[in-house]
């Protein structure tokens, strides 16, 4: 099904709209449907803002905006079909879907068709590499874990181990562990690849192997299913590292599902509503965007929603700077862009990649939001080392899941 969100900034305008194409999981049940919903809702807020503004100003003329989002159902072949449909329809200004793997499919179509793509929910630098009309507002994989190492070093961590799912995004995020360990005078004991969506005996063997190595800290570059199973298996086997850092699992859904078992986990994020960012284009602060999103949709925006907002606002600004909707001309303006957004400052290097860094956050107290623990100069609390598994089990039994649902509902990191 091809779903379309359409805005004309004024019923009196007769100028052709600036059309932006995208894809997302708009179905009820596929793997990335929660992110598809977040993207759709973010685009709706943008549509309302641009409606109030009067449109995009191109060559002295206010033009309405139309966003077309194809339902990709979290599948690569559907992503390709949606963007090929955009090419067929003459739509060549695009926003990406979710994940590195699916965004890479969109990037391939953009590169072959001469279309422009702004990715916002992917970590792999392969998406923009050697593709002059492809950009990414999401920080590159190499920037995800650095802040966590800074916090770990300050806490006296000496040995680490990592594991990652056999998928582009997780693999790219865990790849720099050896270099970071050397930089921070730590020893990397192992960095295991596990099957995509691993479960059961694979996770059991993984935890057993890590337990035998006895690392001070463990890094998991995985999606949520594996994270949940790993946490459960940690308790089952009484595996007791001093810190566990995930690329997921500190989300509102995870908090509800894991309950007190999720306490003391650390995650990485590029954005929280509490961060002091304000958009020079729209005037929205991060907090105002979070409050507006929450009031409209009764859920808190994940960081991917803020990234999608930064992507579409940056694209709109570049169209106005270019006074054109031609991809090559707009791309040239994106390359020059230096824009403060509610997601942070957006600019692009020679490879079309933003230089932003990720922050490390930790769930430390019941009923409190995740605490920023790194970078240290922006930390609101030091990293707390994890108590023993028996102490965690006691906390799990003592604290009801309902109390954890009151935690700040913030999505930390996907790919």
TrEMBL record:
<protein>
    <recommendedName>
        <fullName>Leucine-binding protein domain-containing protein</fullName>
    </recommendedName>
</protein>
<keyword id="KW-0732">Signal</keyword>
<dbReference type="Pfam" id="PF13458">
    <property type="entry name" value="Peripla_BP_6"/>
</dbReference>
<dbReference type="InterPro" id="IPR051010">
    <property type="entry name" value="BCAA_transport"/>
</dbReference>
<feature type="domain" description="Leucine-binding protein">
    <location>
        <begin position="32"/>
        <end position="364"/>
    </location>
</feature>
<dbReference type="InterPro" id="IPR028082">
    <property type="entry name" value="Peripla_BP_I"/>
</dbReference>
<dbReference type="InterPro" id="IPR028081">
    <property type="entry name" value="Leu-bd"/>
</dbReference>
């Amino acid at each position: 099904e091809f779903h379309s969100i359409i805005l004309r900034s004024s019923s009196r305008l007769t100028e052709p709209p600036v059309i932006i194409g995208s894809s997302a999981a708009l179905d009820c049940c596929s793997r990335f449907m929660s992110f598809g919903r977040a993207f759709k809702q973010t685009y709706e807020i943008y549509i309302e803002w641009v409606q109030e503004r009067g449109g995009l100003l191109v060559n002295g003329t206010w033009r309405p905006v139309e966003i077309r989002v194809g339902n990709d159902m979290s599948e690569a072949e559907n992503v390709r079909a949606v963007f090929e449909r955009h090419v067929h329809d003459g739509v060549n200004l695009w926003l990406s879907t979710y994940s590195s793997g699916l965004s890479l499919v969109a990037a391939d179509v953009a590169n072959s068709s001469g279309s422009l793509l702004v990715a916002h929910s992917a970590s792999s630098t392969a998406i923009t590499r050697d593709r002059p009309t492809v950009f990414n507002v999401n920080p590159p994989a190499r920037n995800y874990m650095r802040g966590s190492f800074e916090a770990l070093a300050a806490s006296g961590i000496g040995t680490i181990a990592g594991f990652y799912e056999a998928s582009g995004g997780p693999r790219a995020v865990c790849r720099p562990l050896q270099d970071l360990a050397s930089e921070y005078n730590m020893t990397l004991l192992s960095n295991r690849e596990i099957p995509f969506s691993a479960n059961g005996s694979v996770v059991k063997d993984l935890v057993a192997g890590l337990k035998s190595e006895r690392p001070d800290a463990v890094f998991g570059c995985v999606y949520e299913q594996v994270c949940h199973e790993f946490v459960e298996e940690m308790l089952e086997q009484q595996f007791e590292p001093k810190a566990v850092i995930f690329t997921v699992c500190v989300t509102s859904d995870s908090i509800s599902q894991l309950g007190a078992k999720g306490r003391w986990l650390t995650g990485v994020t590029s954005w929280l509503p509490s961060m002091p960012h304000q958009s020079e284009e729209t005037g929205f602060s991060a907090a105002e965007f979070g409050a507006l999103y929450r009031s409209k949709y009764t859920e808190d925006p994940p960081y991917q929603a803020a990234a999608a907002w930064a992507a579409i606002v940056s694209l709109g600004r570049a169209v106005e700077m270019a006074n054109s909707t031609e991809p090559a001309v707009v791309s040239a303006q994106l390359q020059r862009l230096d824009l403060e957004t509610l997601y942070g400052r957006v600019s692009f290097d020679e490879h079309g990649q933003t230089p932003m860094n990720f922050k490390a956050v930790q769930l430390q107290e019941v009923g409190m939001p995740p605490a920023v623990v790194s970078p240290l100069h922006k930390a609101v609390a030091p990293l707390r080392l994890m108590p023993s598994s028996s102490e965690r089990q006691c906390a799990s039994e003592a604290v009801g899941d309902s109390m954890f649902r009151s935690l700040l509902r913030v999505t930390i990191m996907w790919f």
